[in-house]
Write a structure and sequence with these properties.
Elements (H helix, E strand, L loop, with lengths): L5 H12 L3 H23 L2 H17 L10 H18 L13 H18 L1
Length: 122
């Protein structure tokens, strides 16, 4: 990851606020790893953190116009990532209504026994 100077970041933020997609892309390139770290701290799962960051970056792009002070870009982005992570966790944790495949290792032997008992009884 390349470090960005504060004045360069402020210029990129100003350009992104006026709709410059390339400027926003540069900001993402500079700060994506930080955003992943913030999301992973809350989600404790790297794949879920990726999803959170993707959603947060879309939200940040759509709401760039609400950022009044370009110097506050990093705290602003951090707040968006944090809010997205909390929202994701509130909606049923990292998997929502889905169950991780690892859970089926516990359920499968029970299903297998039921199926075998069904076959033996017949």
């Amino acid at each position: 990851m390349e470090k960005v100077r504060l004045d360069e970041q402020q210029e990129l933020v100003q350009r992104a606020r006026s709709g410059d997609r390339e400027a926003f892309g540069e900001l993402v390139r500079y700060h994506r790893s930080k955003a992943l770290g913030w999301a992973n701290t809350i989600a404790q799962d790297s794949s879920i953190a990726e999803d959170i960051v993707q959603e947060a970056l879309i939200r940040a792009f759509l709401h760039m116009g609400t950022l009044m002070n370009p110097e506050r870009f990093i705290p602003w982005l951090q707040r968006i990532v944090r809010n997205q992570a909390y929202m994701k966790m509130r909606r049923g944790g990292p998997y929502g209504k889905e169950r991780p495949f690892s859970d089926f290792r516990q359920v499968y032997p029970v299903l297998l026994r039921k199926k075998l008992s069904f076959v033996i009884i017949q």
